[in-house]
C-alpha cells in the first residue's frame, strides 16, 4: 500500500488538524478530517456579527512565527498579514501606566526606583542569562525571584503568572518563559490577517478539498480503536470509518474519553492539567488606551488583562467599532467557568467601565458584549517536561498524537501547532513510503 491508497483520519479541525490534513492531502494521501463542532478553527474559531466574522479569542501573528508564515505563503495569504507596531500598558492598583520604553519604566510608580532599574537591566539580559541553563528543571519562581528579587516577583510576576497558570504558577518550568520571550523577542510588531483568521481556515479547507480530501464538521468522534496497522473511528450516530492511520489533535483527556480500553492503556499517562479561559469581547464606540495589551493587577477586576484588538486590526474590520477583549484563565471546574455568560458579561462590563472611567468611557460607549469560554487552552507543564513529554507515536497502534501538550517547550500558538503538524505529517508520509516498499 502507498500513500495514495492509504486512508488517514485526522481528528480535530483546529489549526493543527487542518495543517496536517492540508499537508497529507497535498502529498496525495487520502484524508478525512473530522471536527466535532459545526465550525472549523478550534481555539481560533469565530462568530458572525453584522456582515463580518470575528475571532472568539484574540489572536495575532508574531514576526518570528516562521512555520505559520510559510504556510500562509503556500496558501497565498502571507501578503495579507497587516503588520503594526503595537504598544503595551499596565494597570496596577487601578492606575494606568505605559510600559514600553526605559522612560516608561522609570515612571512606573508601583516599583521603587531601584527595583525599576533592576527590572530593566535584568529584562534586557534575561534571554542571555537563561542560555546554557537547565531551565526545564528550574521553577519559574525560583529563577525569577533570584534574578529580580522578592519585591518584583511578588508585585508583578506572581500576579501575572498566577493569572495564566493558576495555583501551580510558580512551578511551571522557567523554560516556558524563556521560550516565550524568544517568540516575542521584545518586539512590538504584531500581525493580523486582513481577512481575519477565518480567511486562513477557509483557505486550508479549500486546499484540502481541492486535493480530494474530505472535511466534515458536526462529526464528533465518540470511539477510537487501534491496532498496529488499522484503526476504526466511530462517529456520533454510529457511523464507523476504517483508517490506516489516525492523527489525533484533540487534548489528551478528551482522546482518553473516546479511546477503547486497549488504546487508553497505551496512551501516555500524564499528570498534566489544563487551564481553560473565559473571555468577554466588547464592541465599543470609542477606543480605551490604544495599547494592544495591558495586564491588570490588583485593580478590583475579575479579569486580569485587556487586549485592544483594534489597536492592531483597525476598526474598519469591525464595522467602525473598537474591539476589546478581557480575559481570565481559569480551571474548567471553577465557579467562574460554570457561570452563565450573561451574568459574566454584565459584571465584567461594570468592571471595565470602572477601570476606564478616568478616560471618560461610559455605558453609552458599549455597543455589544459577548462572552466565550474554552476548557482546554494552556497545558500547565510540570518540571522536566522536555524529558517526560509524550512522543507523538502511541506504541502498538496506528495512532499519532499532535496536541498542544506536544508543542512544549514552544508556546502554544498557531505557529507551534503548524510546526508540529508539519513534523507529524512527515512521519505519516514516511510510514506510507515504508509500507509501500514492503508491500
Ligand atoms: C484566549 C486565547 C488567545 C490566544 N492567542 C493566540 C495568539 O495571539 N496567537 C496564536 O498564534 N495563538 C493564540 N492562541 C493559541 C491558539 O489558539 C492555539 O494554540 C491553537 O489554536 C491550538 O490549535 P489546535 O488545533 O492544536 O487545537 P484546538 O484549536 O483546540 O483544536 C482541537 C479541535 O478538536 C476538536 N475536537 C475535540 N474533540 C473532538 C472529537 N471528539 N471529535 C472531533 N473533533 C474534536 C475541537 O472542537 C477543536 O476544533 C490563543 C488561544 C486562546 C484561547
Bound molecules: flavin-adenine dinucleotide
> Looking at CATH, which topology of the largest domain would you report?
Polyamine Oxidase, Chain A, domain 2
- In total, the number of strands is 19
CATH architecture descriptor of the largest domain: Alpha-Beta Complex
Distance between the termini: 6 Å
The number of distinct structural domains comes to 3
Helicity, in percent?
A: 25-40%
Molecular shape: globular
Spatial sequence of strands, sheet with the most strands: 7-6-15-16-17-14-18
| CATH homologous superfamily (4th level) name of the largest domain | Protoporphyrinogen oxidase, mitochondrial, domain 2
Which structural class should the secondary elements be placed in? alpha/beta
Which blocks of ≥5 consecutive residues have pLDDT under 50?
434-439
Strand fraction band? 15-25%
Total count of helical runs of at least 4 residues:
15
Radius of gyration: 23 Å
- CATH class designation of the largest domain: Alpha Beta
GO molecular function, one term: oxidoreductase activity
Domain Amine oxidase: 15-357
Pfam family, one: Amino_oxidase
Protein name: Protoporphyrinogen oxidase
Structure description:
InterPro entries: Amino_oxidase, FAD/NAD-bd_sf, Zeta_carotene_desat/Oxidored. GO terms for molecular function: oxidoreductase activity. This is Protoporphyrinogen oxidase. The protein folds into three domains: 136 residues, FAD/NAD(P)-binding domain (3-Layer(bba) Sandwich), CATH 3.50.50.60; 150 residues, Alpha-Beta Complex (Polyamine Oxidase, Chain A, domain 2), CATH 3.90.660; 84 residues, no CATH class. 36% of the residues lie in helices and 24% in strands. It contains 15 helices and 19 strands. Helix 2 crosses helix 15 and helix 5 crosses helix 7. It is globular. The C terminus is likely disordered. Bound molecules: flavin-adenine dinucleotide.
Amino acid at each position: 500500500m502507498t500513500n495514495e491508497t492509504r486512508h488517514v483520519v485526522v481528528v480535530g479541525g483546529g489549526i493543527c488538524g487542518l495543517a496536517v490534513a492540508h499537508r497529507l492531502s497535498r502529498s496525495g494521501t487520502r484524508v478525512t478530517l473530522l471536527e466535532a463542532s459545526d465550525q472549523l478553527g478550534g481555539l481560533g474559531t469565530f462568530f458572525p456579527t453584522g456582515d463580518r466574522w470575528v475571532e472568539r479569542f484574540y489572536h495575532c501573528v508574531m514576526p518570528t512565527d516562521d512555520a505559520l508564515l510559510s504556510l500562509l505563503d503556500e496558501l497565498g495569504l502571507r501578503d495579507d498579514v497587516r503588520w503594526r507596531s503595537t504598544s503595551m500598558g499596565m494597570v496596577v492598583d487601578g492606575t494606568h501606566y505605559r510600559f514600553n520604553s526605559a522612560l516608561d519604566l522609570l515612571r512606573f510608580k508601583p516599583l521603587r526606583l531601584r527595583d525599576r532599574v533592576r527590572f530593566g537591566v535584568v529584562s534586557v539580559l534575561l534571554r542571555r542569562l537563561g542560555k546554557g541553563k537547565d531551565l526545564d528543571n528550574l521553577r519559574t519562581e525560583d529563577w525569577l525571584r533570584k534574578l529580580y528579587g522578592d519585591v518584583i516577583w511578588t508585585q508583578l510576576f506572581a500576579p501575572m503568572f498566577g493569572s495564566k497558570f493558576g495555583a501551580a504558577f510558580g512551578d511551571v518550568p522557567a523554560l516556558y518563559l524563556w521560550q516565550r520571550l524568544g517568540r516575542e523577542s521584545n518586539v512590538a510588531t504584531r500581525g493580523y490577517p486582513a481577512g481575519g483568521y477565518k480567511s486562513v481556515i477557509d483557505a486550508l479547507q479549500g486546499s484540502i478539498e481541492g486535493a480530494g480530501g474530505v472535511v466534515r464538521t458536526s462529526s464528533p468522534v465518540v470511539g477510537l480503536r487501534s491496532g498496529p496497522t488499522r484503526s476504526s473511528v466511530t462517529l456520533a450516530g454510529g457511523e464507523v470509518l476504517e483508517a490506516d492511520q489516525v492523527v489525533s489533535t484533540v487534548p489528551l483527556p478528551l482522546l482518553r474519553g473516546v479511546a477503547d480500553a486497549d488504546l487508553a492503556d497505551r496512551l501516555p499517562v500524564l499528570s498534566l492539567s489544563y487551564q481553560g479561559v473565559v473571555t468577554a469581547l466588547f464592541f465599543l464606540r470609542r477606543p480605551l488606551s490604544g495599547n494592544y495589551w495591558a495586564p491588570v493587577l490588583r485593580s478590583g477586576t475579575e479579569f486580569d488583562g485587556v487586549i485592544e484588538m483594534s489597536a492592531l486590526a483597525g476598526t474598519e474590520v469591525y464595522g467602525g467599532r473598537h474591539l476589546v477583549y478581557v480575559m481570565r484563565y481559569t480551571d474548567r471546574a471553577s465557579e467562574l467557568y460554570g457561570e452563565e455568560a450573561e451574568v459574566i458579561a454584565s459584571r465584567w462590563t461594570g468592571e471595565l467601565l470602572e477601570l476606564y472611567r478616568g478616560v471618560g468611557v461610559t455605558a453609552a460607549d458599549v455597543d455589544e458584549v459577548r462572552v466565550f469560554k474554552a476548557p482546554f487552552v494552556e497545558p500547565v507543564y510540570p518540571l522536566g517536561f522536555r524529558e517526560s513529554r509524550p512522543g507523538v507515536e502511541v506504541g502498538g497502534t496506528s495512532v499519532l498524537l499532535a496536541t498542544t501538550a506536544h508543542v512544549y517547550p514552544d508556546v502554544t500558538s498557531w505557529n507551534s501547532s503548524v510546526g508540529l503538524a508539519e513534523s507529524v505529517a512527515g512521519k505519516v508520509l514516511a510510514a506510507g513510503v515504508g509500507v509501500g516498499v514492503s508491500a
